[in-house]
């Protein structure tokens, strides 16, 4: 249970940092790239002392590195897609697509990992989806242009696929010895892909590298590394199945982010948001029950 609590806490701190970035005018793309390199370096630093490259199972090494790189590319892809969607379509539909994507790793857990399906789990997950939808709604109405539907679909499947691969990998590939190597490859792949985006922006627009953005990106990389580490550890724990952990973590992050946004940023919270929080707490109790 401690792994889940740490995951929720570190993920929430990342969201709060992003909110703070808006206030101090941090360049998100530069900060994100620095964040991935920081998380990758931390993954290398915390490789276990007993780690030996020669002990990697050569029969799975190709799949190991291929999945790590692919997940890293998905990280960058979904982040930029979310940012683009939030600007062109709206924060609400983009957030809903991002959060609702947890259905993909849940299905993978049930179908490929043979996790048990119970009435409590079905009800809890259903209420969790309702909570995510309500908590994503604000006071403003939004309209979804049909030509932007592809962005929503790609965001849904991109985020869901990344989480789904992690869910499968933690069961069949990752262990305490090679976990940090997987993280290092994932984060560094994301970092180099993000760097390409940065150079494209630098060459096409009158933008310079901002030391402030790099500094805050490094700060963001610390909770990012911890989030992935304890997220995978929570999936590997036998206290809950992955199809229970995904909604618990998602709802936990929403609850903490709502509370901290009110306290730290004095955000207005709509009645829909509060209903989402209440329904989210209810869904967690059902899943845990």
Short note summarizing the structure:
With 289 residues, the protein is mainly α.
Structural key phrases:
mainly alpha, 289 residues
Task: Characterize the structure shown.
The protein has one domain. The chain has eleven helices and no strands. It is mostly helical. Helices cover 79% and strands 0% of the residues. The protein starts with a helix and ends with a helix.
Structural class: mainly alpha
N-to-C CA distance: 14 Å
Number of helices: 11
Average residue pLDDT: 85
| Integer tally of domains | 1
Main β-sheet, in a few words?
Answer: none
Query: Mind telling me the C-alpha Rg?
Result: 19 Å
* Oligomeric assembly: single chain
Q: Percent of residues in beta strands? A: under 5%
Order of helices and strands: HHHHHHHHHHH
Shape: globular
Uncertain regions spanning at least 5 consecutive residues: none
- Portion of residues in helices? over 70%
Report the count of strand segments. 0
How does the SSE layout of this entry go?
Elements: H1 2-24, H2 28-45, H3 58-88, H4 91-100, H5 103-111, H6 119-136, H7 149-172, H8 179-204, H9 211-236, H10 242-265, H11 271-288
Helix pairs in contact: 1-9, 1-10, 2-8, 2-9, 3-4, 3-7, 3-8, 4-6, 4-7, 5-7, 5-10, 6-10, 6-11, 7-9, 10-11
């Amino acid at each position: 249970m401690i792994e889940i609590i740490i995951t929720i806490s570190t993920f929430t701190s990342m969201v709060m940092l992003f909110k703070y970035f808006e206030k101090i005018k941090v360049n998100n793309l530069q900060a994100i790239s620095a964040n991935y390199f920081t998380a990758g370096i931390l993954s290398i630093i915390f490789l276990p002392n007993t780690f030996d490259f020669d002990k990697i199972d050569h029969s799975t090494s190709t799949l190991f590195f291929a999945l790590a790189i692919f997940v890293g590319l998905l990280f960058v892809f979904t982040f930029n897609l979310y940012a683009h969607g939030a600007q062109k379509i709206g924060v609400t539909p983009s957030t809903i697509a991002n959060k609702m994507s947890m259905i993909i790793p849940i299905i993978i857990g049930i179908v490929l990992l043979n996790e048990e399906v119970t009435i409590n789990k079905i009800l809890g997950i259903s209420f969790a989806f309702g909570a995510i939808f309500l908590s994503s709604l604000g006071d403003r109405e939004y309209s979804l242009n049909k030509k932007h539907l592809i962005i929503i679909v790609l965001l849904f499947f991109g985020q869901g696929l990344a989480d789904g691969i992690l869910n499968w990998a933690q069961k069949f590939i990752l262990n305490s010895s090679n976990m940090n190597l997987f993280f290092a490859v994932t984060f560094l792949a994301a970092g180099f892909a993000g760097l390409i985006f940065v150079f494209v922006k630098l060459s096409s627009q009158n933008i310079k590298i901002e030391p402030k953005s790099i500094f805050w990106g490094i700060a963001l990389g610390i909770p990012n590394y911890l989030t992935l580490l304890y997220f995978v550890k929570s999936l590997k724990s036998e206290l809950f199945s992955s199809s229970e952990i995904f909604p618990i973590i998602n709802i936990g992050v929403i609850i903490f982010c709502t509370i901290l946004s009110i306290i730290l940023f004095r955000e207005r919270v709509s009645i829909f948001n509060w209903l989402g929080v209440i329904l989210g707490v209810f869904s967690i109790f059902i899943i845990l029950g």
